[in-house]
């Protein structure tokens, strides 16, 4: 369940719910040519500085394969929501992909968008465990500037 910028997670039978910060993808635009698209991704996240911020967005296939990751080098405390671009993203115009964001701490779990470059992207929610192993694959942020 979502509350504000946080993902509510139940832990155990009858246990209290805990909150983890969640980054939400709020817009996706793609332009360019097949196999070399530029994506502009809007993110809303409860950033508080380097201890809590959206640290990347990524493009993932339906099979959970990482296609592209855009590292975010700093928090966006005073800029919410914010848009950051990246590419080239090597997919075809009809390749169905998920675009999701990652939160430090908290990981995956916020709202994502799914679709194709040709038909556009629609808001959806992925299961927090979908392709979770990607969280440990490079590229990863080295540090947070502010």
Fold blueprint:
Layout (H helix, E strand, L loop, with lengths): L1 E2 L2 E5 L6 E5 L2 E10 L2 E9 L8 E9 L4 E6 L10 E8 L7 E8 L6 E6 L3 E6 L21
Question: Could you describe the 3D structure shown?
Answer:
By secondary structure, the protein is mostly beta strands. It has strands spanning 2-3, 6-10, 17-21, 24-33, 36-44, 53-61, 66-71, 82-89, 97-104, 111-116, 120-125. Strands 7-6-9-10-11 form a five-stranded antiparallel beta sheet, with no helix packed on it. β1 (2-3) and β2 (6-10) form a beta hairpin. 32% of the residues are buried. The model is unreliable at 6-17 (pLDDT under 50).
**Backbone shape:** globular
Distance between the termini: 29 Å
| Percentage of residues assigned to helices | under 10%
User: Which sequence of SSEs, written as H and E, runs from N to C?
Assistant: EEEEEEEEEEE
Instruction: Provide the residue-averaged pLDDT.
Output: 89
Give a quick account of the main beta sheet: strands, pairing sense, barrel closure: 5 strands, antiparallel
Strand order of the largest sheet: 7-6-9-10-11
Radius of gyration, whole Å: 15 Å
Structural class: mainly beta
